[in-house]
Specification:
By secondary structure, the chain is an alpha+beta fold. It contains 23 helices and 28 strands. The strands form 7 sheets. It has a 4-stranded antiparallel sheet with strand order 1-28-27-26, with no helix packed on it. Helix 14 packs antiparallel against helix 15. The chain is globular and about 115 Å long.
Length: 704
């Protein structure tokens, strides 16, 4: 059912795995680093701490950086190490300012931030490159159970054992939300262009927080076992969840239903890692199967293209993850209705074996198989409904359709609904004649439905409000949808009619087209579609955020064309979706290139040169920390270069430094190097992030 290309076989559970160049790095829970080559052959393994108790198999306090380092905690001490893999395995930094032991940690995907979550409930954020403290989140009453960064490095999420989860905006430096769950959050993942985040809790609950709506929009109990990890599948349309019972599930992000389940381990799954399209399943036994989730994808899609469903099912038997294929699901949407039409038609004739034969080519699809099992179990109900409709026993037919949900898709139910719609519209047209004879004819037509619960209300509303219905029909005919919806808003009879529902469905369809136009940045077409939807007043709540998005997309691209980066980045700061555009990423890329150039200037103590390099970016808050970090290096080197100058007022220099960066470890170390620690000891602590309030200067030394 899965294509297992290799197995990483370790003696202990592997907690973290990361691809690094052509190598694969892995950490187990017993202080050992494993290095595998591109064929997943073990090249080397090194134990870097000895005689220490092992970490818990489900520990979440290890993480790899993008530059060949990893974080590893002590099991019994409030201390963690940052260890470099090359040129040789060595400690690069020791985190000693922790209150209690490390419980979880995370590195942002661009290696900008490193976050440590303690059993004390404290979450501290560091610069991943320099290990400089960036900020500390508000302390929590219990240990930190999970930490995750958004892909764009704007948000950090910190979950606590007290069943609260904090979402913090690192750009605005403010709390977005403090959420409360029924159980401890084990893992979380951002998706849908960082506009949503999904949480899984120990009790099997899935919640989704929407950053646009600023609230929890999905809250479902999906899992019977304890979930351990959630991640976004490579198609960006599904979430994968592992569990302590050894199962991996896939969840569709359209309706948040489980669409795939596969058992990997009898004892449990510690973690999941996705490397491109290769899924690594970390089992508690220490074995990690590598699953090619795209195995047989091309021939599978070819079989779908020619509708060879027998071959399609054979490929599904070779790789269960093909069930998530977009083309397959689109095809099954087309196949589903006619397939079950045929099945229901056979069942109406009492031909259960024929129905099973019709289903045979789709037996590997669990959704279809489950649906058919439910129908086959109640096959006699299909026949019974068909008989009721055939003999115009409408009340009995309606009662059955309401009681058995699956019957709504049967030909008999469709016939019943078509009969109802035709009768209602015919009666409505007769009532419009506005005479006694026509009115009585209309009553006679609808008489069979007047005794059916769910239909009698609409029948009564028609006869009571016929003038309103005539007015509504006229408004629709003349294309005056705004006036129609205003009439419906004031009159429940119109609002509860099928015409209202159909018209609103049409508006929803147009809304979907508007969303696509905005996503394509087709602003001209989007403005036309937005204008057409203005009259659909019930959709105004959904239109408002789309208006805002469209307006800000237009402003953003206008600013990019004008090279007004301050405006462009101010917009991107507020609206995260703007940071996904190539134009934005190109500016970030240019900044990264300048940063490499400026690093040499900083080590030479040339702060003026650093500032000159970043002139177009100096007012952009997103880059403030990086520019300041380079200036900090420059200032320290300026101090070292002037160490032997007897005319320097060191008290003044140290005070100026602490106004920008506080009395940090680097300054203390530098003061000792130049024998000025006595002067520094008299200086106040200062402010670690004072550079965010003060104008940046190239030099701490006044030109003489």
């Amino acid at each position: 059912m899965v294509c297992e290309t290799a197995v990483l076989d370790a003696h202990n559970p592997l907690l973290s795995i990361r691809k690094w160049g052509d190598k694969l790095l892995a950490l187990d829970n017993c202080y050992t680093l494993y290095i595998y080559d591109s064929t997943y052959t073990l090249l080397n393994q090194r134990t870097f701490i000895k005689d220490m108790p092992p970490l818990h198999p489900y520990n979440k306090a290890t993480a790899f950086t993008t530059d060949g380092k990893f974080v590893y905690p002590y099991a019994d001490k409030p201390r963690a190490l940052l260890i470099a893999v090359v040129p040789k395995l060595a400690v690069a930094y020791t985190f000693t300012s922790m209150f209690q032991t490390l419980e979880s940690c995370a590195v942002s995907n661009k290696n900008r931030y490193l976050a440590l979550g303690e059993t004390s409930g404290r979450t501290t954020l560091y610069d991943a490159s320099t290990q400089q403290l960036v900020t500390t989140l508000a302390p929590r009453p219990d240990y930190i159970s999970a930490i995750v960064f958004s892909d764009d490095e704007r948000y950090i999420v910190s979950a606590s054992y007290d069943k609260s989860t904090q979402i913090f905006d690192l750009i605005l430096e403010s709390e977005v939300a403090m959420l409360h769950t029924l159980d401890v959050v084990e893992s979380a993942v951002f998706f849908d262009d960082n506009t949503k985040i999904a949480f899984i809790a120990r009790n099997g609950n899935l919640q989704v927080y929407d950053f646009v709506e600023r609230r929890i929009t999905i809250d479902k109990n999906l899992f019977v076992a304890w979930p351990t990890k959630i991640l976004l599948f490579w198609d960006k349309k599904h979430l994968l969840v592992s569990m302590k019972n050894g199962t991996v599930c896939a969840i569709d992000t359209l309706n948040y239903a489980i669409v795939l389940q596969h058992k990997f381990s009898d004892r449990g799954i510690v973690n999941l890692t996705l490397l491109d399209k290769m899924l690594l399943v970390h089992t508690v036994e220490g074995k990690v199967p590598l699953i090619d989730t795209a195995f047989n994808q091309e021939p599978f899609e070819a079989a779908i293209g020619v509708r060879d469903m027998t071959k399609v099912q054979a490929f599904l038997r070779s790789n269960v993850f093909l069930l998530l294929n977009e083309n397959y699901n689109a095809t099954m949407l087309e196949e589903f209705a006619p397939l079950f039409d045929d099945v229901f038609a056979l069942l109406e004739k009492g031909d259960l074996e024929g129905a099973k034969a019709r289903m045979a080519p789709f037996s590997e699809d669990p959704t279809i198989a489950q649906e058919f099992d439910k129908i086959a179990t109640n096959a006699t109900k299909v026949q019974e409904l068909a008989e009721h409709v055939k003999n115009k026993r409408l009340a009995q037919a309606c009662a059955m359709i309401d009681k058995y949900n699956f019957l709504k898709n049967t030909p008999a139910a469709v016939t019943f609904e078509r009969y109802w719609q035709k009768s209602f519209n015919q009666a409505k047209q007769l009532c419009m004649n506005n005479d006694v004879v026509s009115f009585k004819q209309a009553q006679k037509i609808l008489e069979p439905f007047s005794r059916i619960e769910g239909k009698q209300k609409q029948v009564f509303a028609l006869f009571k409000n016929i003038k309103l219905f005539i007015q509504a029909e006229t408004l629709i005919k003349n294309g005056r949808f705004g006036a129609y919806f205003a009439l419906a808003s004031a009159n429940s009879a119109i609002k509860e009619s099928d015409t209202f529902t159909r018209l609103l469905d049409k508006g929803q369809e147009q809304l979907g087209k508007l969303v696509q136009s905005i996503k394509r940045n087709d602003f001209g077409k989007a403005k036309q579609e937005l204008l057409a939807l203005e009259e659909f007043t019930p959709l105004h709540a959904k239109l408002r955020p789309l208006k805002v998005e469209l307006m800000n997309r237009v402003k953003f691209f206008d600013a990019i064309r004008a090279k007004d980066y301050d405006t462009a980045f101010a917009l991107a700061k507020e609206f995260s979706f703007l940071r996904l555009f190539p134009e934005y990423k190109e500016i970030e890329k240019s900044f990264a290139t300048l940063s490499k150039e400026a690093l040499g200037l900083a080590f030479a103590g040339d702060g003026e040169g650093v500032l000159a390099r970043f002139e177009p970016y100096r007012n952009i808050e997103l880059f403030a920390d990086k520019i300041a970090a380079l200036l900090r290096i420059s200032y320290l080197n300026q101090i070292k270069r002037n160490a032997n100058d007897s005319s320097v007022d060191w008290k003044n220099i140290f005070e100026r430094y602490t106004q920008y960066f506080g009395k940090n470890d680097e300054l203390i170390h530098t003061a000792k190097q130049i024998n000025q620690e006595a002067v520094l000891s008299k200086i106040e602590k200062g402010e670690e992030q004072g550079y965010k309030k003060l104008p940046l200067v190239g030099s701490l030394f006044v030109t003489r």
